[in-house]
Amino acid sequence: MELRIGNGYDVHALEEGLPMWLGGVNIPSAVGFVAHSDGDVAIHALCDAILGALALGDIGHLFPDTSPEWKGIDSKILLAKVVALIAGRGWRVGNADITIALQVPKLAPHILSMRETLARVMGVPVDAVSVKATTTERLGFVGRGEGCEVWASVTVIKP
Ligand code: MG
Question: What is the DSSP string of 19-60?
Answer without folding.
Answer: --EETTEE---SEEE--SS---HHHHHHHHHHHHHTT---HH
